[in-house]
Amino acid sequence: MADHQADATVYHWWVSDGEHASIKVIQQYIEARGMHWQDRAIAGSGTARFGDVLKAAVEAGEPPMASQVIGYDIHYWASRGELVNLDDIAREQEWDEVVPYGIQTLSKYEGHWYAAPINTHSTNWLWLNGDLFRRLGGVAPDTWEDLLSMLEEARKLDIVPLAIGHEAWEHTLLFEAVAAGAGGAEFYRRAFLELDPTALDENLLLAIFQRMSQLREYLDEDFSRITWNQATRLILSGEALLQVQGSWVDGEFSYYGYIPGQDYACFRFPDTQGMFLFNSDQYMLFEQGPGDEEARREFVSTLMDVDLQRDVNVSSGAAPARVDVPGDAFNPCGRQAISDMRSTNMRRTLMGSIAMGNANPPEVKNAIYQVVSDHLYGRIDDEEAVHRLREALMNHSAGR
Asked: Which listed residue, 92, 116, 161, 321, has the most CB atoms within 10 A of its CB?
């Protein structure tokens, strides 16, 4: 156990109600190990806003002990030589054996562990208001045509069929589910993870953007004024039928005491069954941050503890970042997530989320953001979106 005087200064972006409850779980575990938790919560979900604050602190010579991080941002910090190498702890706790392979590719840089993953969120979910779902027949939409039919029936009830917020990452999260459903797992992997220019079939990309245009017709006219968690509250209140979002929505529902199968329903986005588009929250430790080696080891070892990963993800709605955490304590949506995570890990269809920076480096992600958000707002048409997306992906492919 670490010295009781050790400070665990932690930067993170978990600021919504459900996320705040989840960070408290981590805090309780860390403090039980004798460390003093010093919290710095910054809204931003791993985007430039959060990153700018963290960079400013590091450049000022005041890095935290640890910071939440996702995706290729880990590689950015590791390449600068700023992070603590975690190989010894990883070897001791057998991370190579229990962490899904897709997550390991992000946690590691040049073959070495630099971040500890705490969860495996997935983004290709539908979250539906339970009462409205039953009014519309109570049958999960299995195909794209099923989804459109359900959205149309919701519109006839004079409710918002599809809730979404105003930020580009939300629009890209919707896009990635549509793209995976339309093109399949091999297309998604080749086009967006491997940046293979031969995968960028114009007709398929056009079909994807045409589907996005269809969905635009079912959005709330005020979506440009709300955030993702405000969109979630529209589902909770029955003002909207469904939301396409990550499994952190399950954490929001749970925080407010809602019961899956009764108050809300969770299903895979149509035609993405058998795929798990993931976002893994991770923690990296700074070489120049506070805390001695013992405190750092205690902090990281605690994050990877089976019990912590169970409890924090029962709260957050995610699957754990370990394949060996029992699912008994999770609700039905959580148990489904764990089952899906394990099976897709075996089939290598557990693939990084574009929207959450787990598929591409930031420059590629941001280029996709711009095209997808401009298109959803109706600033560019389907054909222009295809042209701009192909150009962006091929330019970055050439740069690899």
From this structure: 321
Architecture of the domain defined by 7-121+278-350: 3-Layer(aba) Sandwich (3.40)
pLDDT at 399 over 60: no
**The token pair that represents 155 in the structure block:** 């519109």
Residues 218-254 have pLDDT tens digits of 999 899 999 999 999 999 999 999 999 999 999 999 9
DSSP letter for each residue of 359-398: SS-HHHHHHHHHHHHHHHTTSS-HHHHHHHHHHHHHHHHH
So what's the pLDDT on residue 18? 86
Buried b / exposed e over 7-23, threshold 16 CB at 10 Å, is bbbbbbbbebebbebbb
Angstrom distance (rounded) from CA 98 to CA 256: 32
Domains 7-121+278-350 and 124-277+354-398 are alike in CATH topology? yes
The CATH class, in words, for 124-277+354-398 is alpha beta
Domain parsing of the chain, residue ranges: 7-121+278-350, 124-277+354-398
Nearest to 44 by CA among 75, 18, 13: 13
